[in-house]
Design brief:
By secondary structure, the protein is an alpha+beta fold. The longest helix is centred in the last third of the chain and has 39 residues, at 428-466. It contains 14 helices and 8 strands. Strands 1-5-4-3-2-6-7-8 form an 8-stranded antiparallel beta barrel.
């Protein structure tokens, strides 16, 4: 069974492991009161990756380690800054299937093989507070790395790690200042594996993502930078979605939509013959994720509505029925998500996305200054929103108007995402437009969520009645949603009027 923990640490160049008279000075770092020697450990780890080092390029590591207090399989995934998530699985001979799945978005199905063996003799000391509690762990490692790739070499070095335990993250800054005064600096490599690959891998092996090939001062450079950011987000969120981490499905779905919307809006920059098939696959993935995300939103909305009712208006086992219904719906939706992520279609999508971001199909306009190109794109998306908004405001209440408002919501999203891409070029103009269009999206989105909620409440009411339960509360909630829809429909013209004041065009850089 896998276990997960958050790991916040920093690595430093260090003198020889036995040259440590400066260690006692760390007790002068508030609130460190003492150091406790925890002895010496011999660690032996084999790191696995694809032949072209896809894990290392995405700052992830997978190893099988023996020795020490946590022998087993360890998968480390970046979480930003000095923090990583470490997923641990008990020791076995073969790579656990669960870990293979968690790295799939990075490997894209390429086989994993041993790439480096790293053996360390580790001297461990705990940094304690005045009550004897462990604030951080300091490790001095004498390291030998041997490449397991053809024609690889070996390297030896000494390094130090300071890993936060239960202390304030600011403690790492204070310790770093104390170490700097002793001439001990941060290590250039973020991990042992990164250094090992740099120093032992065969010539020509690249252990990092290649840098952008486009000029960042061009329209193509800025669009591609945004696409790469969203592609990284999608890949990084995959393990969290598989493990059911809260909000992960929502964020991954948004990344899909941002990618798809950008490929559509910036057709003047990217060749649609290459991007349209990818857009179709992103639409498919967003749809598969949508079942789970929509159920999350719906359950939160209905649960809140029931809790806010006075007790005398809740007749029958309303909460119990809602809980059972949500559990069944959410289980089915999560299974659908996992099936999608396990499919060859998803792996092929990831491969296409990697191809797009590494070799973008740029058109002639990609080389132009971003100001005019992006302003023109925003003007086109604004016009699409204006045409969608007209029927949404003119139709009488009813299903046709509900559909029109939903279409306007989608157009507002596309304009908002296009404005996000344009922020580096258009500055405050794009930010202001995005902020006001987001208000349109929120009002229309809440309206659509209410439409979905009314349908669910109707079905729940029918099921309750068939079971001999009172239908009063379900009908009351349905009526509240209908009233809320009327309020949103009254708000929509006002937020749209404010958005029109930020109509794109005119000044740009």
């Amino acid at each position: 069974m896998a276990q997960s923990k958050s790991e916040t640490e920093r690595k430093y160049t260090a003198p020889a492991a036995d040259d440590i008279p400066w260690l006692s000075d760390l007790t002068g770092v508030e609130p460190v009161a003492a150091l406790a020697d925890q002895g010496v450990q011999d660690l032996d780890a084999v790191y696995y990756d694809t032949a072209d080092l896809r894990l290392a390029r995405s700052s992830a590591t997978l190893r099988r380690r023996t020795g020490g207090t946590d022998a087993g399989w360890h998968l480390k995934l970046p979480r930003g800054g000095d923090t990583r998530e470490e997923v641990q699985v008990p020791l076995s001979e073969e790579i656990p299937d669960e870990l293979r799945e968690l790295v799939l978005s990075r490997t894209r199905g390429a086989p994993l093989r041993p790439v480096v063996r790293i053996r360390s003799t580790r001297s461990v000391r705990d940094l304690l507070d005045a009550d004897g509690g462990t604030l951080a762990e300091l490790s001095l490692d004498s390291v030998r790395a041997d490449s397991l790739l053809d024609q690889g070499g070996h390297a030896v070095w000494t390094e130090m790690e300071v890993e936060l335990a239960h202390g304030d993250p600011a403690l790492l800054d204070a310790i770093e200042e104390a170490l700097a005064r002793k001439g001990i600096d941060r290590a250039e490599s973020p991990s042992k594996l990164a250094r090992a690959l740099t120093e032992t891998a065969p010539a020509g092996t690249v252990a990092r993502e290649p840098g952008p090939v486009e000029d960042p001062a061009t329209a193509g450079g800025q669009v591609c930078a945004y696409l790469r950011e969203q592609a990284r987000t999608l890949v990084d969120l995959d393990p969290a979605v598989r493990r059911g981490t809260p909000d992960a499905v929502h964020r991954m779905r948004v990344a899909c939509r941002r990618l798809r919307s950008t490929l559509r809006s910036y057709r003047s920059v990217l060749d649609r013959a290459a991007t349209d098939p990818l857009r179709a696959e992103l639409k498919w993935l967003a749809g598969e994720l949508g079942a789970e995300r929509d159920q999350e939103v719906l359950d939160e909305r209905l649960d809140r509505a029931v809790r806010e009712l006075p007790a005398e208006l809740v007749l029958g086992p309303v909460a119990a029925r809602l809980t059972a219904w949500d559990a069944a719906q959410r289980a089915d939706a999560h299974r659908r998500t996992l099936d999608a992520l396990a499919s060859p279609r998803y792996t092929a999508l990831l491969e296409r996305l990697a191809e797009l971001t590494s070799r973008p199909p740029l058109r002639a306009k990609a080389a132009r200054s971003p100001g005019k190109v992006m302003t023109r794109t925003l003007e086109k998306e604004y016009e699409r929103l204006r045409r969608s908004m007209a029927p949404a405001l003119e139709l009488p209440p009813g299903p046709d108007r509900d559909t029109a408002i939903h279409q306007a919501r989608k157009a507002a999203k596309r304009l908002r995402y296009a404005a996000e891409v344009a922020r580096p070029a258009l500055g405050g103009t794009a930010r202001r437009l995005g902020r006001r269009v987001k208000a349109v999206q929120q009002v229309s989105g809440d309206h659509h969520d209410g439409v979905v909620a009314r349908d669910a409440l109707r079905r729940l009411g029918i099921a309750a009645q068939a079971a001999g339960e009172p239908g009063f509360t379900w009908g009351l909630l349905h009526g509240q949603e209908r009233a809320a829809a009327g309020v949103r429909e009254e708000q929509l013209p006002g937020v749209w009027k404010r958005a029109r004041r930020s109509r794109p065009g005119g000044a740009h850089r």
